[in-house]
Amino acid sequence: MKICITSQGNNLDSQIDPRFGRCAFFIIAEPDTLDFEAVENSNAQAMGGAGIQSGQLVASKDVKAVLTGNCGPNAFQTLNAAGIEIISGVSGIVRDAIEKYKSGELKSTSRPSVGSHFGMKGGN
Questions:
Q1: Residue 39: domain span
Q2: pLDDT in tens, 59-103
Q3: Fewest beta carbons less than 10 Å away: which of 6, 37, 67, 108?
Q4: How far apart are CA 101 and CA 71, in angstroms?
Q5: In a domain, 42, yes or no
């Protein structure tokens, strides 16, 4: 089972990025083995639609859950429609978040944690 963690860097010791749609990297990890792939987020600089495009990218990686700081309404809807568990409010180091996920410390989010355009200049 693979999970996705939004990250500011390309490895397990990177800080979690608080943005989903505009994060720098997606770390696609296997929690039990810590095998991972770092995927640069080509949508980070998109003028609009970053949440939807990022959600589609993550869904194409066949992940079961997303761990992130925040998730806006468009990304939330896209991930939810793909059947992906969304866990927001996550911070710290990617490796630590994976351990917390494995131990059941992190709980699913039932709604977006921020409004549209979070993470953009002038956004909320």
A1: 2-102
A2: 999 999 999 999 999 999 999 999 999 999 999 999 999 999 999
A3: 108
A4: 17
A5: yes
